[in-house]
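User: Hi! I'm working on a homework problem where we have to compare a predicted structure to a textbook description. Could you give me the structure for the chain below?
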Amino acid sequence: MPFQSAPNCANAYVQCAQQNVVVGHSLNFYKADGYTQADIDNLAAAVDDWFSTHVLPLLHSGCTYVNTTVRGLTSPVDNTAVNADGAGVGGDSTGRILPANVSWVVKFTTAFTGRSARGRAYMFGLSDDDTNVANRNTITATFGANALTAWNALIAAAAAVGWTWVVLSRYSEGVPRALPHPYTIEGVGYTDLLIDTRRGRLV
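Assistant: Happy to help. Predicted structure tokens:
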């Protein structure tokens, strides 16, 4: 699809590797007064620090955090930055790592209803110890609570460097928007504790 400008927005891709499969999270941010290269650098550093400090300790040691790449979305040729200060392996060395396609979904909530104003992420790096012994189709409430605490920390981490974490809506009722719309993420939650799958992570 042709480039679609999202003024004053940037994308941060958190890249990891799990059992020879590239996995990651694509997250979007907004800066009302525009951005410079320094702003892009600061966002890359903030997301790197957030992921390595809050999320990576929850993941199995068989999952490796590689780096965070941020790129501006205003222009087709835009500012970019890569940060790998927090690169390393997951902090959970117990249990056996589950296949890369085995995930658990966290949802991003905004002040608005409708599909365009919602977001989600498929967590990876799970181990069998993160699932309930009585029902391996579900993750434990403890892991779920810890994951929500970790993801919610991104709101403050982005704000500390002048950015707002957003759901970036590029389509409305299946039609591309003239300009993508950023919806401020106000919290992170989940619908249930059931294990999900992300088939694209199969090899």
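For your comparison, note the following. The chain has a mean pLDDT of 95. Residues 37-55 form the longest helix (19 residues). Good luck with the assignment!
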